[in-house]
Amino acid sequence: MKSLDFLIVGAQKCATTTLFEQLRVHPDIVMPLEKEVPFFTETGLGREEWAAFADHHFGPPGKRLWGKATPQYLCDPSAAERIAALMPDTKIVVILRDPIERSWSHYRMDRRRGTEDRPFADAVRDLLQPETAARNRTLPVPLHEDGFESESAFHVAWSEYGRSLAPYLEHFGPDQLLVLYLEDLASNPTETLDRLLVFLGLEAGFRPPALGKVVHAGGGGNRIPHGARVWLRERALVRKLWHAVPDARRGRMRFLYERWNGAGKSQEESPGLPVELQSTLERHFAADLDRLLRAGIEPPPWADRYLAI
Question: Has residue 138 got a pLDDT over 50?
């Protein structure tokens, strides 16, 4: 059985799409057409299920590396154990960003999808309540199998990187785990990509067309209203034509559409939190950052913002 050589596990809204698009065109790498096609989200999947999955998404084994990107795996407290049980030698790639900026970007995505209607400040106040926060850390990751599900419970929880990384630090050795930062990818794209390539066992120097670009910069609004998409999906002829497209191609088309449609602009370009709530949120993430640093992870570019609190 050929296993994954590497897996980009997240975090969501931290440029996992950019990494996916950069690596998928590398001549020595094979990745599925669809970025977030899941596998380790289910229990009880073994070698036989993986062989069928790999045959569909990767084809015959060869010399090229197999890789996949599913940012939801960092949010799933059981994913690391499932991955390690089936593929203990797989290399794990994580990319993070300033946690408040990630939370804000996640919130805007939910607004764009029509699954969140609260002001950001109201959402944050609710999510910081101790009982709510504890519950949201254990909720199952939405799979969006029948349309978009709300992810509003996770705007804060999925920015708790120290907590989310703990299972991966437990199940994978330090030489198997690479933590990158979106800020470094934006300011030093060649150096950051070279670091990733060397980690994967490839030569530095590969320069994809997407280098230095934010591939999926989601805005706060859709170019095409969500209601129009729902209307089209309900048309029998459209549905028939859509399902005539092979699964892999359909997934790729959906991915490209979401990337294009989600680039619309909105009037809300910054969180605009009240000063007191901003400070509360910064203290919340400062405690999680301390957990990250105590685990031996390289300090992120935004560490000073939180350590100074």
Answer: yes
In angstroms, rounded to a whole number, what is the distance separating the alpha carbons of residues 249 and 203? 30
Contact 105, 218 (CB under 8 A): yes
- What is the residue whose two structure tokens read 């031996």? 296
Going from the C-alpha of 129 to that of each of 84, 104, 119, 158, 298, the distances in angstroms are 33, 18, 16, 15, 30
Residue 245's CB is within 10 A of a number of other CB atoms, namely 13
- Tell me: pLDDT of 135 over 70: yes
User: Is the overall model pTM greater than 0.70, yes or no?
Assistant: yes
Burial class from Cβ neighbours inside 10 Å (0-12, 13-18, 19+) for residue 93 reads buried
Q: Cα angle at 246 between 241 and 252, to 5 degrees?
A: 100
Residue 229 has pLDDT above 60, yes or no: no
Each residue's pLDDT tens digit, 69-107: 999 999 998 999 999 999 999 999 999 999 999 999 999
Nearest to 92 by CA among 68, 72, 123: 68
Whether the bond into 11 is cis, omega within 30 of 0:
yes
- 3-state class (DSSP) for residue 100: helix
CA distance 288 to 291: 5
What's the DSSP call for residue 208? -
Confidence class for position 250, pLDDT limits 50, 70, 90: low
Kindly state the tokens that stand for 132: 């709510």
Backbone angles phi, psi at 136, to 5 degrees: -65, -25
* Burial of 33 from C-beta contacts in 10 A (0-12 / 13-18 / 19+): middle
